[in-house]
Amino acid sequence: MGRGKIVIKRIDDSTSRQVTFSKRRKGLIKKAKELAILCDAEVGLIIFSNTDKVYDFASSSMKSAIERFNKTKMEQQQLLNPASEVMFWQREAATLRQELHSLQENHRRQLMGEKLNGLSVNELHNIESRLEMSLRGIRTKKEQMLTDEIKELTKKRNLIHHENLELSRKVQRIHQENIELHKKVAYATSSSNVLGLGELEDAADASNAQVRLQLSQPEQSCYDSASKS
């Protein structure tokens, strides 16, 4: 036959009550452990006896469970009020910004070799590794910038060299044109001098002919007079 149904009421006998409390407490803690393992749940259990003894169980830590409980309860209460919800998220954002700033400041100081007290060997090794990676990145960036600058300077040098060659060819061409022009001017001057000398000779011949003509006219007159006689 099965056991009869137990009436849930306060046990008057103190000894029976203490025995029942001990058995039920152990069973409750066992069930809490099973619930945490089977369902991957965070479980926190606190039991106060009538003699003010405290029994507790937490799947992670009791402090974490209590903080999570209080935070979740506050969030649920604030979600019922839109204005409170806005204020809640504003406080959350401010808290996260403060935490981020604190983490960044600690990280910066640790990279500068400050606030290293209390760090383990592994943590110091991790900081050293990050510093080495940062230095490698800085060196790589520096080398890339120098390489790009050298390429740019080489490109400018080649461009200037090409421009100098073009200017040199232009100067040579202008010099050659000046020589040709000088030759043309010299030839024109020489031709002008020859032409002027020929005109002078023609003018002299014409003058001599006129003089001879004038000298021959008196003889013709004497000849005419003799004929008339």
Structure report:
One of its GO terms (cellular component) is nucleus. Its main location: nucleus. GO terms for molecular function: DNA-binding transcription factor activity; protein dimerization activity; RNA polymerase II transcription regulatory region sequence-specific DNA binding. Pfam families: K-box, SRF-TF. The protein has a two-stranded antiparallel ribbon. Among the domains are: 9-79, SRF-like (3-Layer(aba) Sandwich), CATH 3.40.1810.10; 138-186. It has 229 residues and is mainly alpha-helical. The model is unreliable at 225-229 (pLDDT under 50). It is built from four helices and two strands, in the order αββααα.
SSE blueprint:
Layout: H1 14-39, E1 44-48, E2 54-58, H2 62-79, H3 82-111, H4 121-228
Antiparallel strand pairs: 1-2
Could you give a quick summary of the protein structure above?
By secondary structure, this protein is mainly alpha-helical.
State Rg. 61 Å
Beta-strand level of the residues, as a percent range?
A: under 5%
Flag low-confidence runs: 225-229
Global structural class: mainly alpha
Q: What distance separates the N and C termini?
A: 211 Å
How are the strands of the largest sheet arranged?
Answer: 1-2
Would you report the number of β strands? 2
Q: Specify the helix fraction band.
A: over 70%
What is the global morphology?
Answer: rod-shaped
CATH architecture of the domain at 9-79: 3-Layer(aba) Sandwich
Which whole number gives the mean pLDDT?
Answer: 79
Order of helices and strands: HEEHHH
Major pleated sheet: 2 strands, antiparallel
Number of helices: 4
Return the CATH class of the domain at 9-79: Alpha Beta
What is the CATH superfamily of the domain at 9-79? Transcription factor, MADS-box
Main location: nucleus
Subcellular location: Nucleus
Protein name: MADS-box transcription factor 23-like
Domain K-box: 86-177
